[in-house]
Specification:
Helices cover 34% and strands 17% of the residues. The protein is of the alpha+beta class. Helix 2 runs antiparallel to helix 4 and helix 2 packs parallel to helix 5.
C-alpha cells in the first residue's frame, strides 16, 4: 500500500493559500507572491512566467492559454481567452505538414503575455514588476535541470535544431544532467522589458519588431500586424450541473464540451457501485469518451456554438448507443478522412438545443481562485527562438489540418482548436475544486477521470491525480497504465478493447494539478502529479 492511503504523496494543506504547478520553483514563485500580500491572480502570473524559465519546453511567453477566474469580492466567474490567431499570411495550400510541425511557419500569434497582464490589470493587486520578479530572477541566475527536464530537452534535440538560438540556449551550456543550471539571460531581458512597458512593448513595441523580423527573415508568416491585432478576450464560462455540483469551464469554440458530455453520459450509471477502475466502469468510460470525441471532431471547429451538446437529454440519447459488452470503433483523437467499418459517428445535438501543455492553479484565503492551462503546442513548440529574445515560439498550427474537407483546416485569422480545459467546480455556489491537466487530446479524457475520482469515488485530490488512467485512440485501441491490474485489462480485451500497457506512471495520460477546499473549515488542499515535476505547496 502507498504510505498516504491510496497516494504516494501527502495532500498539502493550508488556510492562507495554495499553489499547484508542474514545477516546484514555479509553485514557490506563486507562494512567494501570496506571502508578500498578493492575491491568487498575482500568484498565477508569477507561476505562469516562472514556468517559462523552469519548464521552458511546455509553455512560455511565445505560447497561448486559457484561464478560469473566480473573483471573491464579486462572486463572479470569468474565462480569459488568450489564444492567438493564425497569421494573416498563412495559407494551407502553400505549406507542408513538416513546416507546420515546427519552424518559423508553425506559430500563431503568442497570447500568454496579453493574458497574464489582462488578468493582472483587472483582478490583481500587484504591479507587473512585482508579479514577474521571480521569473526574471530565476532566468537571470539560472534554474537547475531536473531529471524530467533533461528527458524532455534530450527528446527535443531535433526540434531545437530548427533554430541556432534554441540550440545555443538549451543545448549549448554543457552536457545535459540533473542539477546543471540553465541560465536564460535573454529571456530575463525580455521579461524585464514586459515588466517595464507592459503588453504594448510585446505586441506593438521593440519586442514585437524583433519577433516579426526574425520570423520573416526565416521564411515564416507572423507579422507586426498580427502581433498588434492581438487582444485577450473575456468570455462567459460554460456551466454544467453534475450530481449536485456545477462545473465551470471554457466555452465553445474550445473543446471542453467533450469531457462535459462524457460526464453527462456517465451520470446515468451507478459508477460507485461498479467500483473505481473496475472493468465495467472503465468500459463505459471508454465508450462515453468515444461518443463525445466523435462530436468534438464534428462540431468543435464550427464558427457557431452547437446547442445541445452538454444537455442531459442529449447525454441520455448518447448513453443509449453504448453496448455494455462490446467495444465500439472510434475515429480517434484527430480528424481522419478514412472511415473505419462500423465507426462511431457524431450524434445530433441540435435536436436538444433547448435543453505538451502545462496546468497550474492558485487559491487565496479571500476566495479568489485562478485555474490556468497554457501551452507551446508541443515540447519546445516550433523550436524557433526569435533572435536575442529568448522567446521560443509555439507550433499551434500543427493542431490544424491541411485537408480541404477538414472542419479544422488552417486558414488566416483562425484560432487553432485547443483541448485545454481548466475547470472549477462548485456546490451551492461555494468553490469545491480546481482541476486541469496538460496532454493535448488526452486532456479531454484525463480531466473527467480525475473529477470522477473525487466526486464519485471519494478520493482526496492527491489520490485522484495519482490514480492510474487510460487514454482512448482510433478504432478500439487504448493505453492503460500498468497499475491497472492484469485481470481488469484482460476483461477489457474480452470486450473487444485493444489494450496497450504503458508505464506505471506515464506522462502520456497527462500531468494533473488540483486544489480542493474543505467545505466546513475552508482549508485549501493541493495535489500535484508525480508523472512530471508537479509540486503543490500550501500556507
Amino acid at each position: 500500500m502507498p504510505p498516504h492511503r491510496h497516494a504516494y504523496r501527502p495532500v498539502v494543506m493550508g488556510r492562507r493559500g495554495a499553489v499547484v504547478s508542474a514545477h516546484p520553483l514555479a509553485t514557490m514563485a506563486g507562494i512567494e507572491i501570496l506571502l508578500a500580500g498578493g492575491n491568487a491572480v498575482d500568484a498565477a502570473v508569477a507561476v505562469a512566467s516562472t514556468l517559462n524559465v523552469a519548464e521552458p519546453f511546455m509553455s512560455g511567453v511565445g505560447g497561448i492559454g486559457l484561464m478560469v477566474i473566480t473573483h471573491a469580492r464579486s462572486r463572479e466567474r470569468h474565462v480569459l481567452d488568450f489564444i492567438g490567431r493564425a497569421p494573416k499570411a498563412s495559407d494551407a495550400t502553400r505549406v507542408t505538414e513538416a513546416e507546420i510541425d515546427g519552424g518559423p511557419k508553425a506559430c500563431v500569434t503568442p497570447g500568454n503575455v496579453g493574458g497574464w497582464l489582462a488578468a493582472l490589470e483587472r483582478f490583481g493587486t500587484m504591479s507587473r514588476a512585482h508579479a514577474l520578479a521571480p521569473a526574471i530572477r530565476l532566468a537571470e541566475d539560472g534554474a537547475p535541470l531536473t531529471w524530467k527536464s533533461c528527458e524532455f530537452i534530450d527528446k527535443a534535440r531535433a526540434t531545437l535544431a530548427r533554430s541556432a538560438d534554441a540550440e545555443r540556449i538549451y543545448l549549448g551550456q554543457g552536457p545535459l544532467r540533473p542539477g546543471r543550471v540553465l541560465v536564460q539571460k535573454e529571456l530575463a531581458g525580455t521579461l524585464r522589458q514586459i515588466a517595464e512597458g507592459g503588453a504594448e512593448v510585446f505586441y506593438r513595441g521593440p519586442v514585437a519588431k524583433v519577433i516579426a523580423r526574425s520570423v520573416r527573415e526565416a521564411g515564416g508568416w507572423l507579422s507586426e500586424e498580427d502581433l498588434a491585432a492581438f487582444t485577450p478576450e473575456w468570455r462567459v464560462p460554460t456551466d454544467v450541473p453534475f450530481k449536485g455540483y456545477r462545473l465551470a469551464t471554457v466555452p465553445q469554440p474550445f473543446s471542453a464540451f467533450q469531457y462535459l458530455q462524457t460526464l453527462n453520459i456517465l451520470e446515468g450509471y451507478d459508477l460507485a457501485g461498479w467500483g473505481h477502475n473496475s472493468v465495467d466502469y472503465l468500459h463505459h468510460l471508454i465508450e462515453a469518451i468515444k461518443l463525445a470525441s466523435a462530436d468534438r471532431l464534428a462540431y468543435a471547429y464550427l464558427d457557431t456554438t452547437t446547442a445541445g451538446l452538454t444537455t442531459k437529454a442529449y447525454a441520455a440519447a448518447q448513453r443509449a448507443r453504448i453496448d455494455a459488452r462490446r467495444a465500439g470503433v472510434s475515429e480517434g483523437e484527430r480528424y481522419d478522412a478514412a472511415t473505419l467499418p462500423g465507426q462511431i459517428l457524431a450524434g445530433h445535438p441540435a435536436k436538444y438545443a433547448d435543453e505538451h501543455t502545462t496546468h497550474f492553479a492558485a487559491a487565496d484565503r479571500e476566495g479568489n481562485v485562478v485555474t490556468v492551462t497554457q501551452t507551446l503546442g508541443g515540447p519546445f513548440g516550433s523550436g524557433f527562438v526569435a533572435n536575442g529574445t529568448g522567446i521560443v515560439l509555439n507550433n499551434l498550427l500543427k493542431w490544424t489540418d491541411l485537408a480541404p474537407e477538414s472542419p479544422n483546416r488552417l486558414k488566416p485569422g483562425r484560432k487553432a482548436g485547443t483541448m485545454m480545459s481548466p475547470t472549477q467546480i462548485f456546490r451551492d455556489g461555494e468553490f469545491v475544486m480546481s482541476i486541469g491537466t496538460p496532454g493535448s487530446y488526452g486532456i479531454l479524457q484525463t480531466t473527467p477521470q480525475m473529477i470522477l475520482n473525487v466526486l464519485e469515488f471519494g478520493l482526496n485530490i492527491q489520490e485522484a491525480i495519482e490514480a492510474p488512467r487510460v487514454r482512448v485512440y482510433r478504432d478500439r485501441l487504448l493505453d492503460a497504465e500498468s497499475r491497472i491490474g492484469a485481470p481488469v485489462r484482460e476483461a477489457l480485451a474480452a470486450r473487444g478493447h485493444q489494450v496497450n500497457v504503458i508505464d506505471d506512471w506515464s506522462w502520456i495520460v497527462g500531468g494533473g494539478q488540483g486544489i480542493v477546499r474543505d467545505p466546513e473549515s475552508g482549508a485549501l488542499m493541493g495535489g500535484a502529479d508525480p508523472r512530471r515535476d508537479g509540486y503543490a505547496v500550501a500556507v
